[in-house]
From TrEMBL:
The keyword S-adenosyl-L-methionine applies. The modification N6-(pyridoxal phosphate)lysine is found at residue 263. Its EC number is 2.6.1.62. Pathway: Cofactor biosynthesis; biotin biosynthesis; 7,8-diaminononanoate from 8-amino-7-oxononanoate (SAM route): step 1/1. This is Adenosylmethionine-8-amino-7-oxononanoate aminotransferase. Belongs to the class-III pyridoxal-phosphate-dependent aminotransferase family. BioA subfamily. It comes from the Bacteria. One of its GO terms (cellular component) is cytoplasm. InterPro entries: Aminotrans_3 (IPR005814), BioA (IPR005815), PyrdxlP-dep_Trfase (IPR015424), PyrdxlP-dep_Trfase_major (IPR015421), PyrdxlP-dep_Trfase_small (IPR015422).
Length: 419
């Protein structure tokens, strides 16, 4: 029996209608921007395996550092104990994050990084005896699949079964030149109740790679700060170079209070989430009163092997080679975008850094049949794409070669003719 057939008997896959989904592709190994299935077929991972893989699959340097750590210390309880990889990673993260970030809290994934951020904000006010319990977020936001993270995400087919169990959130439109004043006045009506504002800076990934300008985000953040509303940058997706700078918020100068990181943090090697905050937030939890403690943790908090993978990733991230690769991908995407943007089937073409998205002319729906046709078209061609409805996007591992990029671009051009 093939891997895929064995899988079909025992496994329940994420976001997958198991009755109608075809057999999954059984992957046996990875190398650079490619993975290989059990029949030896090569696939270019054009989406970095759900946006996590930044430096290529089975990266030898990360593998070596992880192996070394496994032989030294695989795990230790993180309450009352600490270890070198956790301390070093926190030190290094704080050197690349904006200077107002002073404390690092570890968890296991992007959703938990968001949960921690929300709890930090809500309890920040609670600890000071101030009642502020509402949260502000963008329409169509995606912050994860656990209940708190789902609550601050836009209501959609993903949340429909749970909508009446999600706490109330104030959703606003993405900012632009025309609506910025009305958004501010909306916030001003709510400010006494607002604990925080959470956002995906510059690119709303899951919503369909929706992009918006730094200038207006900056205005919103500055306004929230002036009105005593904490600000949370969910850089789970945009962090570590995706947008061309280390963090998407490097495009603005007004600094958010909290950062959520995951996905590329370990180069796509190990599950890990990080929530960082300012001293002001951290200090609001310092007390002789145990009730002011941040009561949150996970069994695998600060797992040393995950920390080692993240540290190895940081070495790669800060290398000149990675920066050159990021710049190269940005330039290649731009040239490709210029070439196809006028095509009659291209409804919209947008790019932020290493992320390029192409919206096909059709009715917009995540469940659109076009989505499956596009998915299968590229899979047959040996390219892993995961269209969001009628939107396809490329966000490759930074190590992708020009030849591999050219192949993806050519297949997209062909798809524009064929589909
Ligand atoms: C993927 C994502 C999350 C959730 O991360 P998981 O590790 O999948 O739980 C949160 N926020 C953003 C912006 C994301 O893209």
């Amino acid at each position: 029996m093939s891997l895929a057939e064995r899988d079909a008997k025992v496994i329940w896959h994420p976001y997958t209608q198991m009755q109608t989904a075809g057999l999954p592709v059984g992957i046996v190994r990875g190398d650079g921007a490619c993975v290989y299935d059990e029949d030896g077929k090569e696939y270019i991972d054009a989406i970095s395996s759900w946006w996590v893989n930044l430096y290529g699959h089975a990266h030898p340097y990360i593998a070596q550092k992880v192996a070394e750590q496994l032989r030294k210390l695989e795990h230790v309880i993180f309450a009352g104990f600490t270890h070198e990889p956790a301390v070093e990673l926190a030190e290094r993260l704080l050197t690349i994050l904006p200077p107002n970030q002073k404390r690092v809290f570890y968890s296991d994934n992007g959703s938990t990084a968001v949960e921690v951020a929300l709890k930090m904000c809500l309890q920040y006010w609670h600890n000071q005896g101030i009642t502020k319990t509402k949260i502000l977020a963008f329409k169509n936001a995606y912050h994860g699949d656990t209940f708190g993270a789902m609550a601050v995400s836009g209501r959609s087919v993903f949340t429909a079964a749970f909508d009446n169990m999600l706490f109330e959130v104030e959703f606003i439109d993405l900012p632009n030149q025309r609506n910025i004043d009305s958004l501010k006045s909306h916030i001003s009506h709510l400010k006494s109740e607002l604990a925080c504002f959470i956002f995906e800076p510059l690119v709303q990934g899951s919503a369909g790679m929706i992009m918006y300008e730094a200038e207006w985000l900056e205005e919103l953040i500055a306004y929230c700060k002036a009105e005593n509303v904490l600000t949370v940058a969910d850089e789970v997706f945009t962090g570590f170079g995706r947008t061309g700078k280390p963090f998407a918020t490097n495009y603005i100068t007004t600094l958010p209070d909290i950062y959520c990181l995951s996905k590329g943090l370990t180069g796509g090697t190990m599950a890990m989430g990080v929530t960082t905050c300012t001293s002001e937030i951290f200090n609001a939890f310092l007390s002789d009163d145990k009730m002011k403690t941040l009561f949150h943790g996970h069994s695998y908090t600060a797992n040393p092997v995950s920390c080692a993978a993240a540290l190895a990733s940081m070495d790669l991230f800060t290398s000149a080679e990675t920066q050159q690769n990021i710049d190269r991908i940005i330039a290649r995407h731009q040239a490709f975008g210029e070439k196809i943007k006028a095509h009659s089937k291209v409804k919209d073409l947008r790019q932020t850094g290493t992320i390029i998205a192409i919206e096909w002319y059709t009715e917009t729906s995540y469940l659109s049949p076009l989505r499956d046709r596009l998915y299968n078209y590229f899979l047959d061609a040996g390219i892993i794409m995961r269209p969001l409805g009628n939107i396809i996007y490329i966000l490759p591992p930074y190590c992708i070669t020009d030849t591999q990029l050219d192949y993806i671009y050519a297949k997209i051009e062909q798809a524009l003719e064929d589909i």
